[in-house]
Q: What sequence folds into this?
């Protein structure tokens, strides 16, 4: 019941902002509302996809009562590795296997880094904030070191790397990836034992421990998933920006956390949903698009976003305490 | 709150809809850099002279994806002209191509992109600036010692950035011709004054004699000066910078104050961009060139006051 209410709350917020965006949308030369143009709507979906993908796994992390600050750096590491593997490694491999190899290598490394986060959090019992803060710094250093501080250009030629970028920057591929990941993570959280464990740990870790739930293993998996999705977002980032950039993804962790929180998952964990996070991501995306279409000053944009974040969370808390 | 906000936004969008205006959309890479803030200010000032032109500036906050998204949004709005100061070459290439495909004239400002997806590219030349700075330093050393010899500290900006690479390359081309001129230290200070002060302090501890500090931007040269002053060694050497921004915080003022021996103006490129933009908007027959290179200007105590007037926006 409580969950339903919270979900209705995010949905109401999203509907409100959508309505506002439609109402105040500037009009194109033919009189139609620019906001509602299919091109603009798919622009929004593409633009939120990377943060959206990262926020899915961030939901799991936060549900366990943890946090993952390293996602932006992991994205940078993965995007750098993707570009390096495409432009510098395996010169004699076949096209498809080379591209697949590059993607797998990048995603595997960031998944491993995520697993390491999880292992340290659960084995050494250091607070997730501190562990992932450390890896946020260290992984960024690794990405910069690997690339000697350089952006690795993918280029626009007719070669393999350019081909990769051309395919994976397609709107359909990017949005489709987000949709698939969202569906998978929704099932994982709502319909599996693993999902139940994730919630139980965040709700009351002591109780979960007494109930004999596999706390360590679950946490390692959760941070690994965060690494995996950040790594995958990094692959898409490389294609979208035609480069492996070790400085990519700075402050992405904050955008992802904001999306989760606006979607109704409290930082203390235990309760929350993937659909809420998706709505949180959409709210931020639609809000950005609406303000930019109306040419609102970018500093004012930041102030408005700040107000929305606090409002969204405050309203949900209010409802909770009433019920 | 949302309703009030909506009403306010609605009011502004209605008001702008009443008059037929030419919109110039400017996608800026990062407002937080003083150089770019100066670009914004000058652009606003120059466009404000045209009553029928409305300038809209978006700030990508140094994030490629954000800038791509902002340019995409601009394309939807179909402005009369788009100016892009790309955060990075590769990331913005495709989306600027989309703008061209949508028949929006595009001016690429200061940084280039991988394909010529623009109507005009207005830029300066960092290698040439590096060379000018190098020659100034060689002249100074020749006067000091009777022949070209001396010890130089280079303060480097963020590694891998075009400006850093080429300002260094240009100067090194000159220094390499004189075997007795040596770069004895080249710490990295990421363009930041506070970091430059720390890095210079370490260099000063290690090096008993320094003739010249060449900062790849003015704030780093100033940071190095502050470090030397703290150890009472600022008279031993000269400080040379690049950027030459106007205003009380800019490098030109530092030359007037006797802190920098010289700075080399890295042109904002905005005057030219606005000139071309207005001609594209108002003269249907105008055919813009593909490439405009803007020369640097050397600022020394002799011409600093005059340059300060010229490059200080506002008043």
A:
């Amino acid at each position: 019941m409580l969950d339903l209410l919270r979900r209705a709350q995010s949905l109401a917020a999203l509907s409100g902002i959508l309505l506002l965006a439609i109402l105040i949308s500037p009009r194109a030369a033919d009189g139609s509302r620019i906001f509602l143009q299919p091109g603009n709507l798919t622009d929004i979906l593409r633009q939120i996809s990377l943060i959206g993908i990262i926020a899915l796994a961030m939901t799991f992390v936060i549900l366990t009562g943890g946090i993952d600050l390293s996602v932006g750096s992991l994205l940078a590491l993965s995007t750098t590795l993707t570009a390096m593997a495409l432009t510098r490694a395996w010169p004699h491999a076949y096209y498809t296997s080379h591209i697949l190899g590059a993607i797998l290598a990048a995603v595997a490394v960031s998944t491993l880094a995520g697993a390491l986060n999880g292992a340290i959090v659960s084995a050494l019992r250091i607070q997730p904030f501190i562990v992932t803060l450390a890896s946020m710094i260290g992984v960024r250093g690794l990405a910069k070191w690997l690339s000697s501080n350089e952006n690795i250009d993918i280029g626009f030629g007719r070669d393999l790397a350019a081909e990769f970028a051309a395919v994976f920057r397609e709107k359909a591929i990017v949005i489709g990836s987000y949709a698939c990941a969202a569906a998978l993570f929704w099932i994982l959280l709502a319909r599996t034992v693993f999902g139940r464990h994730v919630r139980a740990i965040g709700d009351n870790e002591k109780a979960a421990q007494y109930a004999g739930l596999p706390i360590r293993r679950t946490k390692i998996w959760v941070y690994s998933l965060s690494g995996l999705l950040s790594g995958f977002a990094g692959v898409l980032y490389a294609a979208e920006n035609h480069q492996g950039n070790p400085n990519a993804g700075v402050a992405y962790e904050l955008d992802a956390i904001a999306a989760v929180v606006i979607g109704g998952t409290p930082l203390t964990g235990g309760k929350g949903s993937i659909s809420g996070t998706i709505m949180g991501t959409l709210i931020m995306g639609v809000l950005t698009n609406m303000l930019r279409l109306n040419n609102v000053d970018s500093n004012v944009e930041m102030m408005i976003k700040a107000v929305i974040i606090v409002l969204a969370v405050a309203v949900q808390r209010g409802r909770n305490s009433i019920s | 709150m949302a309703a009030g906000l909506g009403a306010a936004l609605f009011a502004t969008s209605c008001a702008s809809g009443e008059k037929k205006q030419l919109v110039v959309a400017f996608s800026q890479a990062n407002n937080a850099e003083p150089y770019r803030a100066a670009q914004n200010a000058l652009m606003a000032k120059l466009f404000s002279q045209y009553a029928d032109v409305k300038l809209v500036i978006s700030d990508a906050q140094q994030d490629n994806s954000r800038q791509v998204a902002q340019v995409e949004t601009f394309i939807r709005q179909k402005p009369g002209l788009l100016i892009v100061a790309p955060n990075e070459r590769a990331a913005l290439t495709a989306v600027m191509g989309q703008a061209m495909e949508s028949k929006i004239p595009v001016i690429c400002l200061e940084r280039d992109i991988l394909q010529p997806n623009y109507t005009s590219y207005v830029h300066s030349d960092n290698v040439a600036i590096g060379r000018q700075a190098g020659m100034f330093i060689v002249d100074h050393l020749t006067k000091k010692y009777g022949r070209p010899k001396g010890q130089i500290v280079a303060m480097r900006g963020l590694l891998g950035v075009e400006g850093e690479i080429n300002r260094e390359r240009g100067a090194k081309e000159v220094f390499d011709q004189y075997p007795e001129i040596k770069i004895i230290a080249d710490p990295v200070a990421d363009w930041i004054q506070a970091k430059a002060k720390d890095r210079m302090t370490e260099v000063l501890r290690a090096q008993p004699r320094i003739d010249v500090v060449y900062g790849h931007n003015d704030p780093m040269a100033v940071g190095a000066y502050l470090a030397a002053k703290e150890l009472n060694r600022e008279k031993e050497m000269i400080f040379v910078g690049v950027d030459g921004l106007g205003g009380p915080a800019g490098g030109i003022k530092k030359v007037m104050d006797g802190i920098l021996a010289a700075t080399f103006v890295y042109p904002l490129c905005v005057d030219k961009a606005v000139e071309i933009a207005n001609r594209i908007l108002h003269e249907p027959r105008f055919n813009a060139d593909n490439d405009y290179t803007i020369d640097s200007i050397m600022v020394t105590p002799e011409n600093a006051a005059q340059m300060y007037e010229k490059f200080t926006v506002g008043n």
About this structure: Chain A has one domain: 2-17+33-322. Chain A touches chain B through 46 residues (CB under 8 Å). The two ends of chain A are 9 Å apart (CA to CA).
